Task: inverse folding
């Protein structure tokens, strides 16, 4: 089932892949991707409900004109879904993994563990800015929004910025390990937080089992 | 509620633009305006955060009357421009380029205030041949982030502020600006512009607010909010300024105020590019060109000549 959530002027497609009792798992897709149509095999062992959100400019969600994408905006997208769910464990792939980290820091009481998995757009635009201006894109009204692809691939992710969100997640969640990394790729922001306080390496299956058992408190 | 239409508010020296036109920026409609002759050489004015092109109504005519075609625009979400779905610093820079491109492909002089200064520094770095000279009015980088660039820079990254920002996003779709009388809106703006003349602020209401049946409302998109955050670090801008290749004139305020940039004149000097000139305005707040339009216009005209 798909419903549309409102985030400012955007309508976001929010998919219930599996309803029912138990803890909530929210899937956040990678750059240029969209939500899966069914519960992916690698999360089928999750004991509760499984939801997925199409970010702005992706899947069935609004394609805004004129760009203006940031990872922080996408955190706002995910937060609207979190408001619907109350509490959830986040599984983010690629760009969605970075967004999951941000939201784990910003809503530590509601995010019951964030799992960063490999996927498109995990690196972002690196640690420091180059002087850039994207003059425009050749077409619009397609999904994913070309502006999303260009701007979110260049989105800055300084190591110290990512570290602050980990610290906020540690301070506010009450979880021993609010962040789990199943991704094998290591962009600089992920290197910086990797195996610091509150961040552990785990297979996806192990991380899901851990948060299913320990994330609801 | 009975609504009476106030008499047109005027202000000494203020003049509405001679022409208005729309500029498209990939789906976002920008309200652009011009003072001066259409055939005169173009000069661009860039406003700061939460402002609008009409805040140049006192300053722009002085430049136009000296022989320039002065062009400005309302940033997305500001003034009469579209309330966009998305806002970002980079999108504002792209919109600026769309306005420049709509006039000429040649290198042009730019005068920018506050956040507009930071935006145009980025544009000058990204496209070093697109700008011929740059004047920045209290908008050069500062170690202390300015409130109107808060969606861009890293600061206030506390649990409380992040939650407040997200709470705002959750309700942004249903937000409306609070209506009020012309005088009430002028008083509200006075909190952000405490040094500016009350009559000037009343004048600005008639330009930057719309008159609904239940009162005046600022046109600024209510989704735009101070107190955001982002990964940008002010030190980056400072460090990169030295490599700017075009002539730069910077004007700095000396009196701190709510919207003030907080730039310290002496602190900037080591970071200036070769040949740049930096002029502090004594006993002056953030809106230097509104407090001293004639002095600033003369400096700009001298710099451009």
Result:
């Amino acid at each position: 089932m798909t419903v549309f959530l409102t985030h400012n002027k955007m309508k976001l497609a929010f998919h219930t892949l599996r309803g029912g009792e138990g803890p909530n798992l929210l899937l956040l897709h990678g750059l240029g991707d969209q939500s899966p149509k069914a519960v992916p095999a690698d999360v089928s062992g999750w004991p509760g409900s499984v939801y997925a959100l199409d970010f702005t400019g992706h899947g069935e969600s609004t394609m805004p004109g004129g760009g203006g994408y940031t990872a922080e905006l996408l955190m706002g997208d995910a937060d609207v879904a979190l408001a619907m769910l109350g509490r959830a464990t986040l599984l983010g792939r690629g760009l969605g993994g970075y967004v999951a980290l941000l939201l784990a820091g910003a809503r530590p009481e509601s995010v019951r563990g964030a799992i960063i998995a490999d996927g498109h757009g995990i690196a972002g635009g690196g640690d420091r800015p180059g002087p850039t201006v994207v003059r425009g894109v050749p077409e619009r009204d397609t999904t994913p929004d070309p502006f999303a692809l260009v701007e979110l691939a260049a989105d800055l992710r300084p190591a110290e910025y990512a570290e602050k969100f980990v610290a906020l997640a540690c301070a506010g969640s009450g979880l021993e390990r609010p962040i789990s990394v199943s991704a094998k790729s290591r962009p600089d922001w992920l290197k910086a937080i990797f195996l610091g306080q509150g961040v552990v390496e785990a297979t996806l299956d192990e991380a899901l089992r851990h948060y299913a058992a320990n994330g609801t408190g | 509620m009975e609504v009476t239409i106030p008499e047109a508010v005027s202000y000494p020296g203020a003049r509405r633009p001679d022409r208005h036109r729309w500029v498209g920026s990939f789906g976002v409609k920008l309200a652009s305006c011009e003072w001066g002759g259409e055939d005169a050489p173009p000069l661009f004015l860039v406003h700061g955060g939460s402002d609008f092109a009409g805040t140049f109504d006192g300053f722009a005519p002085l430049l136009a009357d000296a022989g320039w075609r002065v062009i400005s625009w309302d940033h997305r979400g500001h003034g009469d421009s579209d309330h966009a779905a998305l806002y970002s610093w980079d999108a504002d820079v792209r919109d600026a380029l769309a306005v420049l491109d709509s006039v000429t492909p040649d290198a042009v002089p730019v005068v920018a205030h506050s956040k507009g200064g930071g935006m145009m520094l980025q544009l000058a770095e990204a496209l070093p041949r697109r700008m011929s000279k740059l004047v920045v009015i209290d908008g050069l980088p500062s170690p202390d982030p300015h409130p109107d660039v808060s969606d861009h820079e890293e600061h206030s990254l506390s649990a409380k502020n992040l939650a407040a920002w997200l709470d705002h996003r959750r309700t942004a779709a249903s937000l409306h600006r609070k209506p009020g009388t012309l005088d009430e809106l002028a008083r509200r703006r006075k909190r952000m512009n405490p040094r500016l003349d009350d009559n000037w602020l009343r004048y600005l209401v008639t330009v930057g607010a719309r008159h609904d049946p239940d009162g005046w409302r600022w046109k600024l998109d209510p989704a735009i909010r101070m107190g955001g955050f982002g990964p940008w670090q002010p030190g980056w801008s400072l460090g990169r300024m030295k490599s700017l290749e075009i002539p730069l004139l910077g004007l700095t305020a000396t009196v701190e105020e709510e919207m003030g940039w907080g730039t310290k004149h002496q602190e900037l000097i080591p970071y200036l590019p070769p040949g740049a000139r930096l002029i502090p305005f004594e006993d002056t707040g953030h809106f230097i060109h509104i407090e001293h339009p004639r002095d600033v216009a003369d400096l700009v005209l001298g710099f451009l000549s």
User: Anything to note?
Assistant: Residues 89-103 of chain B form the longest helix (15 residues). The beta strands of chain B are 19-25, 28-35, 42-46, 69-73, 108-113, 131-137, 209-212, 215-218, 248-253, 277-281. Chain B has ten helices and ten strands. Confidence is low (pLDDT under 50) at residues 1-5 of chain B.
